[in-house]
Each structure stands twice: as C-alpha cells, then as structure tokens.
C-alpha cells in the first residue's frame, strides 16, 4: 500500500537493543552486530535465559570463523560488541529496540510500555511478531508512531526477506529507518499492511493448516510430506513446522483461525505436539533423523 519512504528520513543506528534472548532473537542479534557493526545489548527475563542466548550467539560467531566467513579478529570484535544483561537501564541509549518475546498480545504490549519509560523519546521500537496486530501491540505506548513491525524468517541468517509492517500510527521516519536497517542487514524488505499474518504467514498458514487438517483426518505426516514433495517446496511441512517451532506454528494458525474462522484451520493435534516439544528426531549435530516416535503417538 505505501510507497518506499524517503531514505533521508532514516535515523542513524549506533546501538541496538534486543528484548528476548530466544533462538530467533539471538539469531537476529548476531545479524545486527555483524551487519551494522554496532553494540548490541540483549536481555530476557532472567540471567539464565540471557546467558543461553549470548552463548548461542558466541557459538554462531565461532562457527562463522571456522567456516572462514569471518576472520578471527572479526569474530573477537563481534563477540565483544554483544552484551547480555538483565539491567534494562542499559537500553536507555539505544536508537533501535526490537523484541522477540513470547507471542502473546498482552506480554508484548507490556514489554513496550515498560521499555518506553527507559528509552529516549526518539528511539525506534520494532516488533518481530509473526502474526499479531502491530497496532494492538502498540496500544499502551505514549508514542505509537515510532513502532513498526520488523518480521524475520527462520533461519534468520539464510532467509532473505523482512516484512516491514506499517501500522496506522507508524510515521515516515520510523518506516524509513526500518527500510534502511533492513537494507543494511542485507535483506530484502517489503512493506506490508498490518493484517493478520501480514503476507508470508498468511499464505504459509493455509499450507500448514491444510497439511495439519490432512494429518488430523488420519493421513500420516510422512504421507503428507511425500505427497507435497513434487511441488518443489524448499522444506516439507513437517520440517517447516519443526523449524519455526511447534508452539509458534500453533500460535500462527490460531491467530489466523481467530481472525478468519471459516478460512483457517485450528489443529488440536498441533497443540498437543507443541506441548510435547518436537516432531522430528535429530542427531547431535541437529540433522533430522526422522519422525520422533513419541510425537507420532500423539496424533
Ligand atoms: N539455521 C541456520 N542456518 C541454516 C539452517 C538453520 N536451521 N538450515 C540451513 N542453514 C544454512 C546452512 O548452514 C547453509 O549455510 P552455508 O551456506 O553457510 O553452509 C545454508 O543455510 C544452506 O543450507 P543447505 O545447503 O542445507 O540448504 P537447503 O537447500 O537445505 O536450504 C533452507 C535450507 C534455506 C532453510 C531451505 O530449506 C528453505 O528455504 N526452507 C524454507 C524455510 C522457510 O520457509 N522459512 C520461513 C518459515 S516462516 C517464519 O519463519 C515466520 C515465523 O513468523 C513463523
């Protein structure tokens, strides 16, 4: 709907704040530090979560160096730019703060309301929500004009797209900054409307929802995967669900179902699997060995 905003309006980013230190957040924290070469501060509910996220980022930096993608010096520099903390005051001088906390509206609303009291009035706030309304997420903000959706895809390092979601209140300066940040991260950015699932998840929810509908009707996961393989999907539905996380997948389907019950499917089985944790069995290196037998018993 919106044209490309004037790049001249974009704000300079000299420090980034990441709220949430889970898998997605730590993957994009690494991308920010690598591509923008600025300090990145990352936080979560407690020190254990922060430490886990930071350890993951450091492992990824080491892996990049081992693959020869970055030099040893660069690896040390990137690692030094990442700082994990539970002290929210360290976000006070961030120009850009992005969250990837649990996909629950009230949690995200409160997170932003809390951090708005800490950051400067001109700090840009971004949400990596996969399908919630950005407008609603900003409902408790004094300045919702500086909030924008900034939606990454799994695996963050590989997938080239970012959906930049313009809520009704998002101003041009915020949108322009988001577009320039995406470009500097070397991603392709598209500006989408603030509708459930934006563009990509709206389409994926059909695919994954219908795959789950077939499973729930008694067709095995393996059969669904094999049946769809000739379509040339980059990943089988089961692998894609496992990659995005079964909890996130179930949540995305629910959000769509709640918005358009006649069009999107809600799978009870997917919720059972989400509680179980995984659908696929992997080896120590994370390579998929096949379906997890315990998970299959649940459906
Ligand atoms: N994490 C990190 N890196 C990964 C990865 C993972 N899970 N899987 C693969 N990669 C990397 C590999 O290390 C490799 O990097 P390298 O070139 O540096 O060695 C590169 O990706 C290519 O890997 P492969 O050779 O194994 O390539 P594949 O051909 O198997 O492609 C893929 C892997 C790119 C992940 C491909 O399967 C794909 O595109 N899958 C679809 C993913 C997708 O649809 N993502 C969107 C999900 S929806 C979402 O995230 C939104 C959320 O809101 C729910």
From TrEMBL:
Domain 3-hydroxyacyl-CoA dehydrogenase C-terminal, by residue range, is 197-286
Q: Where is the 3-hydroxyacyl-CoA dehydrogenase NAD binding domain?
A: 15-194
The family line of this record is: Belongs to the 3-hydroxyacyl-CoA dehydrogenase family. In the central section; belongs to the 3-hydroxyacyl-CoA dehydrogenase family.
Q: Write down the superkingdom of origin.
A: Bacteria
Question: Span of the full-length protein shown?
Answer: 330 to 628 of 710
Q: What is this protein called?
A: 3-hydroxyacyl-CoA dehydrogenase
